[in-house]
Amino acid sequence: MKQKIAILGAGNLGLSLVKGLVESGEYLPNEFHLSRRRIEKLNQFKKEGYHVTNNNITATLNADIIILAVLPQKINTVLQEIQNSLTDNQLIISLVSGVTIAEIKEIIGNNIPIVRAMPNTAISIRESMTCISTEHSWESHIINVEKLFNLVGQTAIINEEKMTSATALCACGIAFFLRAIRAASQGGNEIDFHASEALKMAAQTAKGAAGLLLVNGSHPEDEIDKVTSPKGCTIAGLNQMEHNGFSSAFIKGITVSANKAKELY
Questions:
Q1: What confidence tens digit (pLDDT) does each residue in 72-117 have?
Q2: 237-240-244-247 Cα dihedral, nearest 10 degrees
Q3: Is residue 150 located within the same domain as residue 211?
Q4: Considering its fold, how many domains does the chain have in total?
Q5: Per-residue pLDDT tens for 159-176?
Q6: Terminal-residue alpha carbon distance, the chain
Q7: Residues 24 and 151 grouped into a single domain
Q8: Per-residue confidence (pLDDT) for residue 261, from 0 to 100
Q9: CB atoms inside a 10 Å sphere around CB 14
Q10: Which of 29, 13, 9 is nearest to 21 (CA)?
Q11: Residue 138 is part of a domain; what is its CATH number?
């Protein structure tokens, strides 16, 4: 039987997930209840057949899966609001950065299964990297959550203590790689391509680079070696980037992001 899904906090991430699930062909718009304080932001989704509301309790009624996609600063208020309307045959999936399962249980109790998932906004085009974790007593729910997120990208099951790191590498990482592509396109613009041409070339080249690693199962340096010849232009460019701190800046950005994620709740 198809599961009905409620999205509490239907903002960028929550709506990206919905779009990806519908695009997969496994779900229809009328199987989702979307909740958001500013309900006018959901007008287009209402026209497309989604159920929309600004009442979180209404959204959770009769839902099999309740997905928490609110800001960390808002989650306590939302959980306190819905706690008395929840039943133990529902499943909570939290997408909220920095909030542990134990902290959610403090408000809603121990009877309702909770799984954490950390996707990214590429979920809307079914290209997310989603990390999933839960406590030992609820591991039986992992397989269903994994199936759900496999519809919209790739998944990895990790220990919960690594979820903050997953936030930095996978969720924030979308922005980091986009900034790298933007920089590449600006470089292309400077060496004679129009901005639109340079952006398309940079984005497709980045997609190809990622594809080589995923399809071949290879290490980045193995693929780099294939395009770097002695005294060639590729190694000259790479060395110039490293002289200016490219790798160290990227690494530092991820570690700073992870530390910041720990402070969000």
A1: 999 999 999 999 999 989 999 999 988 999 999 999 999 999 999 9
A2: 50
A3: no
A4: 2
A5: 999 999 999 999 999 999
A6: 36
A7: yes
A8: 86
A9: 22
A10: 29
A11: 3.40.50.720
